[in-house]
Amino acid sequence: MAVIQLKDRMEAYSRAYAYAIAATAGVAIGSIDPDINGLDVHFLSPDDGDDAGDCSHVQLKSTADVLPIAEDGAKRYKLRHRDYDRLRKLTKIPRLLVVLEVPADADKWLDCSDDVLVMKASARWVSLRGADATTYAPSSKIPVDLPAGNLFSPAALRVNMGSLDDK
After folding, report:
1. Which pTM does this prediction carry?
2. pLDDT tens digits for 9-24?
3. Which range marks the domain in which residue 86 is found?
């Protein structure tokens, strides 16, 4: 049987990961379609009394490559120049970069049993909000550090929604 290309499968898997995080965090998620500004999904929490819900936009990336690790534990991902510039803008709605690492062998992405479905992937996030312009050539990829403490989890999503002004 023929299957879709690996890059398309990785994109679908990163969306599934984001949807699982949103469901667990208790927030809504929606795809941004068509893809504008390089953003893939939008998270939104419910209104709370008189307070409006928080939201954030996310650019999802996925890789089967082993990312290099710096001395401080950060993993380094190379991001397209255009995406870097979009994510560093000071926008009304916070923007995050979420990078999902998956095993190189797609058959190892999931463990399924009668009791549990385990996604074999891990994601880290970073806000590039207000980052300096880069001196890299427009055709270059910009190295971006994904800090060791920035696991993209339900708790991290809830904490970061709408609160990136201080980051």
Report:
1. 0.93
2. 999 999 999 999 999 9
3. 6-166
